[in-house]
Amino acid sequence: MTSPSVGLIWVYVLSSALVFIVIGTVIRLVVAVQRKQVEETRRFSQGLVEAQDAERARIARELHDDVIQRVALIGGELSALGRIIPNPSEAVTQRIDGLREELHDLADEVRAMARRTHPAILDHLGLPNALQSLAADLAVSDDLAVVVETAPGADFGAVSPAAALSLFRAAQEGLRNVARHAGVTEATVRVGPRDGGVYVAIEDRGVGMVAPGAAAKGLGLLGLNERFRAVQGHVSIASRPGQGTTLTAWVPAQGGEG
Ligand SMILES: Nc1ncnc2c1ncn2[C@@H]1O[C@H](COP(=O)(O)OP(=O)(O)O)[C@@H](O)[C@H]1O
Ligand SMILES: [Mg+2]
Q1: What are phi and psi of 188, to 5 degrees?
Q2: How many CA within 13 A on the CB side of residue 59?
Q3: Cross-strand partners of 251
Q4: N or C: which end of the chain has fewer CB within 10 A?
Q5: Closest Cα to residue 131, out of 180, 175, 193, 161?
Q6: Per DSSP, what are the bridge partners of residue 194?
Q7: Residue 47: its pLDDT value, please?
Q8: Is 235 close to ligand 1, i.e. is its CB under 6 Å away?
Q9: Of the candidates 125, 130, 75, the residue with the CA atom closest to the CA atom of residue 103
Q10: What does DSSP assign to residue 253?
Q11: Letter string b/e over residues 65-82, b meaning 16 or more CB atoms within 10 A of that residue's CB
């Protein structure tokens, strides 16, 4: 009497095992497809970010090599004109001097524009120097006093150029946000080693945010999220109303995790 029920149990066990195997395979397939899609999206973002960076670098080069050269040329011509005119009146001299001063300011402005568009200093002197130069620019353009603190031990050479540029862009956006939203005129930028990579934190003691997660809907922070996804890093915001805001960005070292 026992053998039919034993057989039944076997049928039950085997069919259950079969169902589990089929379900397991389907889940594995779905997960694999999803992983592939996530990776494709990441590659696509990476392509977009790289194309945008290359375009910005080109614009910065043209501003620097072409526009500024032409402005300098016009300045030289104006000086020559001042010398050519025989016995110029006071009014003429003043107008020429005024124009030369105007051109000088224009050249400064274009130079700053080129730096904002693509920090050439980042390629030549590295991230801490580029952050110092950004701080100096913001003191002039936004009246923001920025202290840059570099913790020892970071291997900036191990970070890809795209990742270093991303950290710089995070500092740029974070500091612009301090100037625009925090209601204070001071900020600190910390840069140093963390978790096999490099981090940059932009800190203020300003008004803070009620819901930092929800606030990340602005284009600036959204763009940063996208950019850091592309370089396999991440950004996060810690903020409390009345206590200030800290934007932290991290990128992995090349050949490291991620
Ligand atoms: N340092 C900060 N202090 C206070 N509020 C901030 C700060 N940074 C960002 N925010 C808030 O988060 C929002 C989103 O920021 P962001 O994505 O950079 O967009 P945007 O600067 O264009 O408004 C801002 O509009 C602001 O309300
Ligand atoms: Mg912003």
Answers
A1: -120, 135
A2: 15
A3: 198
A4: N
A5: 175
A6: 197
A7: 87
A8: no
A9: 75
A10: P
A11: eebbeebeeebeebeeeb
pLDDT of residue 216: 57
Q: Report whether residue 223 contacts ligand 1, using a CB cutoff of 6 Å.
A: no
Residue 179, ligand 1, Cβ within 6 A: no
- Ligand 1 touching residue 244 (CB < 6 A): no
Superfamily of structural domain 124-252 = Histidine kinase-like ATPase, C-terminal domain (3.30.565.10)
44 CA to middle of ligand 1, Å? 26
**Chain centre distance of CA 48:** 14
Q: Where are the domains of the chain?
A: 1-118, 124-252
Count of helices and strands (H, E) across the chain: 8, 5
pLDDT tens, residue by residue, 34-76? 999 998 988 888 888 889 888 998 998 898 889 999 999 999 9
Helix axes 161-177, 219-230, angle to 10 degrees: 160
Which two structure tokens, joined as six digits, stand for 246? Answer: 């800290």
**186-194 and 145-150: which strand pairing?**
parallel
Place of tokens 């039950």: 12
Supply the pTM of this predicted model.
0.79
| Residues in the chain with pLDDT values less than 70 | 1-4, 214-217, 256-258
3-state DSSP call for residue 205?
coil
Q: Is 204 close to ligand 1, i.e. is its CB under 6 Å away?
A: yes
Mutational pocket test of ligand 1: of 146, 176, 177, 202, the residue with most ligand atoms within 8 Å of the beta carbon: 177
For ligand 1, atom 26, which residue shows the shortest CA distance?
181
**What is the distance, to the nearest Å, from the Cα of residue 60 to the centroid of all Cα atoms in its chain?**
16
